[in-house]
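In response to the reviewer comment on reproducibility (Comment 2.3), we provide here a single inverse folding case reported in full, input and output, so that an independent group could reproduce the run without further information from us. The structure tokens appear first.
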């Protein structure tokens, strides 16, 4: 029997311009704290994602 193909969402990439010396400083901080830039950004924007999802859900409800 053929296997069912899994449907996966593709992640969108967000790019942020940063000065080379700022990136080096942030990378040093990340290494010292055993984290990555992606993890820091995701933690920082998580509450805004929740609020945005609520706004989208509210806009779908009939008036």
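Designed residues, in position order:
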């Amino acid at each position: 029997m053929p296997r069912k193909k899994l449907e996966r969402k593709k992640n969108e990439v967000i790019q942020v311009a940063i000065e080379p010396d700022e990136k080096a400083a942030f990378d040093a901080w990340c290494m010292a704290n055993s984290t990555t830039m992606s993890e820091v950004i995701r933690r920082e924007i998580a509450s805004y994602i929740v609020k945005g999802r609520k706004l989208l859900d509210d806009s779908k409800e009939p008036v």
